[in-house]
Amino acid sequence: MTNETNAASLDIVGIGNAIVDVLTTIDDSFLKKLSFDKGSMTLIDENKAKELYEMTTNRIQKSGGSVANSLACVAQLGGKAAFIGRVRDDKLGEIFTEEISTTGTIFKTPPSSVGPSTARCIIFVTPDAQRTMCTYLGASVLLEPKDIDLSLVKEAKILYLEGYLWDNPAAKNAFIKAAEIAKNAGRKVALSLSDSFCVSRHRESFIKLVDDHIDILFANEDEITNLYETSSLSKALEKLKKKCDLAAITIGEKGSILISNGKEIKIDPFILGKAVDTTGAGDLYAGAFLKGYADGLKPELSAKIGSICAGQIVTELGSRSNTDLLNLINSYLEN
């Protein structure tokens, strides 16, 4: 890392969708009636969001969003994090702002006073712990270049970008602006590919983004094989090695594969109990990984820390852990 990076006052600044998660448990037959592919993320409009919301029972409402979840993990592990994203000045916007601020994450993006309501993600969790997400992006798509807090980006060791935002042209431009600012300040830039369907929609521009700006890439098996248009994970990884020095590819219950300076390192999963909800697994993996890396830990140890946190969050409902993650990590590393 450069001297500038060491002098940073923040560990991570993230840019992503500011979303309130609405979680509910259902059986497979109910999901089949809804006609959504299990494990997918489907974009919906506000009317569909209201319809699905009314269909949910025993719902849990929590501040969410992929990058926001990762940053909450960073803060929970004692790191200094900041989030850039847009909400509306409504009830869900208040829930998001209050909950992310409670984690210790800095959130200063002003809410919209007009336009669509705050984004929400209806998450259907089936007995196999798979989550099927229906997302209304609402106010989050109003993020634009002028919302990027230059001082936050310059002051963070790592800028973390959420692939989901690539669906919005203005947010896409905000991404590129932030990445250029971070690079000019000597910082690292990380990206989560977010979703295989998102990758399909923007494959060429994602490949260019990885080639031009990204130092650290997070993806799952479906996303990375989709990016490089192959059904073979090994072939996708070979292509990735030529483009990105550091990447973490999660492979579900089999753990993850770390790409570091052209080498593949298998990271075993941490099984800490029965999986009840996989909603936040990738988010906490990335958050814990980035916290470790920002602290100067080697990539392999950072990946193991990510795996521990992912192993814990799947035993809980939702994307924010109620467990003392720092104590959990220390107990495993000591052993």
Automatic annotation (TrEMBL):
Gene3D superfamilies attached to this UniProt entry: 3.30.1110.10, 3.40.1190.20
Single GO molecular function: kinase activity
Keywords carried by this UniProt record: Kinase, Transferase
Short name of one Pfam family: PfkB
Domain (Carbohydrate kinase PfkB) ranges: 61-322
Alphabetized InterPro entries for the sequence: Carb_kinase_PfkB-like (IPR052700), Carboh/pur_kinase_PfkB_CS (IPR002173), PfkB_dom (IPR011611), Ribokinase-like (IPR029056)
SUPFAM superfamilies in the record: Ribokinase-like
Keyword Calcium set for record: no
Coiled-coil ranges (or none): none
Entry keyword Transferase: yes
Family: Belongs to the carbohydrate kinase PfkB family.
Protein name per UniProt: Possible carbohydrate kinase
